[in-house]
Amino acid sequence: MLFLFLLLNFLTPVQPAPVPAGMKLALLKYNGGGDWYANPTALPNLARYCNQNLGTAFDPDYATVEVGSPELFNFPFLHMTGHGNVVFSDMEAQNLRQYLIAGGFLHIDDNYGMDPFVRVAMKKVFPELEFTELPFGHEIYRQKFNFPGGLPKIHKHDDKPPRGYGLMWQGRLICFYSFECDLGDGWEDQDVHNDTPEARTQALRMGANLVQYAFQQ
């Protein structure tokens, strides 16, 4: 359960992370018709990268968990992506809220077209909170890898600068939302999007920072 793995902490960026062998990253499955299943090679590659660079021992075969499932509490790191509609029922919103308040972490990655829907959905989860852009000095940009200019730009889309938004609960970042960035595309196999090695490395490094941050809270 979540309360067990909340005791796990990263000691320093260069030491092996005390993550139980075989733990999985998790992909969030939601309703509404959006393609929650986009980027199927992203999380396996991120898990392998973390294993190589953070000393973790993740199972690359990621888990898929529904928003309203009690299984949510078995995974310290949730990844959510897609291009379209997102709908949370009252029960699902309450379950996700409890998970995040209890110490879980959600990374939302707009794969282009998700923004107007996910903001409404997350407002149902935390009606009292607003997404705020995180300063470049925030610790999520200063984990194993340093990103002094914030998120890397992986895909062009509307040619807007990448933005990293957060939801804060009692001083803790519980949800990180990457917008106009497409980190998940950068995590995918190289032949999926033909991204440059430099872009993929930057995306994976930022993903590793997200994972490391989630485990040290």
TrEMBL record:
InterPro entries: DUF4159
Signal peptide boundaries: 1-16
Protein name per Swiss-Prot or TrEMBL: DUF4159 domain-containing protein
UniProt domain DUF4159: residue ranges: 24-215
Keyword Signal: yes
Nucleotide-binding recorded as keyword: no
Source species, domain of life: Bacteria
Key words, A-Z: Signal
